């Protein structure tokens, strides 16, 4: 069973991130906020695909559900002002 911390580390290892927060209690269902410069110029679906790619086979084998909120550094800064 995965922990939220492990999912966070996997995302950070596979994607250049400025900020990552992952929550989840049951080891299969997670919520994540991911801020990455790699999201610039990409739509939401493409941003989510980058996160899924960073997680690789874990998305099919270990993670049952992942709710994502993705931001570019610019949009994240405007949300947190």
Structure description:
The protein is α+β, with helices and mostly antiparallel strands and 81 residues long. It has a single domain (4-79), classed as BolA-like (GMP Synthetase, Chain A, domain 3, 2-Layer Sandwich), CATH 3.30.300.90. The chain is built from four helices and three strands. The chain has helices at 4-14, 44-55, 58-61, 73-79, and strands spanning 19-23, 29-35, 65-71. A three-stranded mixed beta sheet has the order 1-2-3. A hairpin with a 5-residue loop joins β1 and β2. α1 crosses α2 (44-55). The N and C termini lie far apart (36 Å). 21% of the residues are buried. The model has no long low-confidence stretch (mean pLDDT 94).
Keywords:
single chain; 81 residues; alpha+beta; GMP Synthetase, Chain A, domain 3; 4 helices; globular
């Amino acid at each position: 069973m995965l922990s939220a911390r492990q999912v966070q580390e996997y995302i950070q290892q596979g994607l250049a991130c400025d900020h990552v927060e992952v929550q989840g209690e049951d080891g299969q269902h997670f919520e994540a906020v991911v801020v990455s410069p790699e999201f610039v110029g990409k739509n939401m679906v493409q941003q989510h695909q980058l996160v899924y790619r960073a997680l690789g086979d874990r998305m099919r084998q270990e993670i049952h559900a992942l709710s994502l909120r993705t931001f570019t550094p610019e949009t994240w800064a405007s949300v947190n002002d």
